[in-house]
Amino acid sequence: MSASVETVKSVEAATGGEYKYGFYTDIESELAPKGLNKDIVRFISAKKEEPKWLLDWRLKAFQLWLNSAAEEPGWANVRYAPIDYQDAYYYAAPKKGETPKSLDEVDPVLLETYEKLGIPLKEQELLAGVAVDAVFDSVSVATTFKGKLGELGIVFCPISEAVKTHPELVQKYLGSVVPAADNFYATLNSAVFSDGSFVYIPKGVRCPMELSTYFRINAAETGQFERTLIIADVGAHVSYLEGCTAPMRSEHQLHAAVVELVALDDAEIKYSTVQNWYPGDKEGRGGIYNFVTKRGACRGRNSKISWTQVETGSAITWKYPSVILQGDHSTGEFYSVAITNNYQQADTGTKMIHIGRNTSSTIISKGISAGHGQQTYRGLVRVLGKADNARNYTRCDSLLIGEKCGGHTVPYIEAKNRTAKIEHEATTSKISDDQLFYCRQRGLSDEDAVSLIVNGFCKEVLQKLPMEFAVEAQKLLGISLEGAVG
Amino acid sequence: MLEIRDLHTVVDGKPILRGVNLKIVAGEVHAVMGPNGSGKSTLAYVLAGREGYQADRGEVLYDGKMLLELTPEERARAGLFLAFQYPVEIPGVANATFLRTAVNAARSARGEEELSAMAFLKEARTKLKQLRMDESFLNRQVNVGFSGGEKKRNEIFQMAMLEPRLAVLDETDSGLDIDALKIVADGINRLRGAGRAMLVITHYQRLLDYTVPDRVHVLAEGRIVRSGGKELAIELEKKGYAEFSSAA
Fold first, then answer.
1. Are B92 and A455 in contact (CB under 8 A)?
2. ipTM
3. Whole-model pTM?
4. Do B158 and A444 touch (CB under 8 A)?
5. B-chain residues within 8 Å CB-CB of A439?
6. Which of A76-80, A276-280, A292-296, A409-413 has the lowest mean pLDDT?
7. Helices marked H in A74-107 — which ranges?
């Protein structure tokens, strides 16, 4: 067997092997009727007992979406059959009477699901110091640590709850970073978003723990449209973690989330994602369409927003976490690792929009393609006329494993201020036979060798992740250990 | 411990090894010397199991096992270590991580418990100190940005940590200044002992001043053409390999 074939095999084992999170929880779901129309939008809004302003906001978005039907993005370097938006459910909630007040009231079957995912809420509550807002399909099931955070004035709750408890904040900031008319998927999300997390960190408060949300799609043929809004007030700091999984299904499932971040003066938001949605099987059947709009606004002077993502899942990824650098001296960062294996496709990158003076941005993207995987880095660095002394450093590295995969880089750079300094570096490499032999001569199996080399390739990004996520991400990169031997 | 019988190897269509016979008993250090292109490195690769360096004829017994039937990692876990002539860079991977993975792969294969990070670190620091090497070796990326001498010393450090049963050193002495050479020789001498065997491939007699071999073999044009004691190395240093190159 040639080394490259072996490499391909071990990476298949690492990324493609068996999807570990492909179990299905047998809970009766409450579904809205299939399809999308004004009544469904009203149904969702009514289910959530929303105020009129929000229903109106949704309806307006729905109208925009109808009008923009021709504007479904076609420019990304991904291929898929047209999506029938009328052939899906837009609302699914685990059936249960009252909203649980504490973990003890949460359906034990749900808690078991989380345990299979490796996030035992109870244990976390006691040990890990991570507050988790778990979104199971569309409704937030349990939110931990609320009390402790409350003492500091931190709000961390499902956005549906925030609409009731903090309407002024939600109304002020919802859609202020990603407007309803932003793009086809964001517009759709604005009309039908089900739930998601809301975070508000008050002035001068440094959130004492990592906030975490675990998203999971459970019911068949449901799209998941989370909406997350995080606001860091003047001088506030917060680190937010998002993990995603979905069970195995033969149909494709749409996931069109919107995440909005707002950082005021001297505020800092660090947003980390480990995305492990079901990628489809080895022939490319099934899997999640992950069409997500994530954007942060550095509104304040000296503010900072940092995106870190590890993307190993989804059949198709369309995602560009971006930062609008509005405040003077603000900083935007994007650190990304993406793996595409089998027939996975990813078109991902970032946008850094420099508006304020002395703004800086850093982009580090690591793409790994194996099997028939196709991956495109698409990035935009835009420096507007008044953005004196803007700085950007971009590095895009691609690692190819095997002969049938592809890595593409599409950087856009627009500078309208002559003081701008923009650097772009890109490399494409393969795992060499020399490296593999060296590792194996030291006793490492093929899979361990590939996993080690890939982890080394991604190191700069992985070390940006909070500790507990870094370990999970490393494991994800080389799930190798399962079924790899023999 | 190691017995090579009538080993033939063709690389890229060219016969390189043409009937090598060699026997090493546990506790001995053997030197293999010879001119460029005589097949020294090929011998090392065949023993370690590098792809493209298969035996076409002959067999190799290692501790009673048919060595050539094992995968490279199985050989490594069974205690065979190759110090590379050109150590390979692995960007982003810390030397300590690399080495701990290697040490634990061998331990697991032997049914032993894996070393904890702390225990490993303690062991590594002790070994580095013995080899008069800087602790920063642990945090640096595997061979990335290392000078030639540092790469070779890193191989010796890895060998010290892995404590192999059979070490094959492929021109580990080439390109070293005298201080580095002493460190390499010292590393070899420390590992010399009853349970271990070493095969030191070298071009020059220089290293053998510091680590005295039990046997010296001359490899020329794919065969061992002469064997002797340490005095053979001294003789070669004076006369060169001309005699052997023309002989075949």
1. yes
2. 0.95
3. 0.79
4. no
5. 90, 98
6. A276-280
7. none
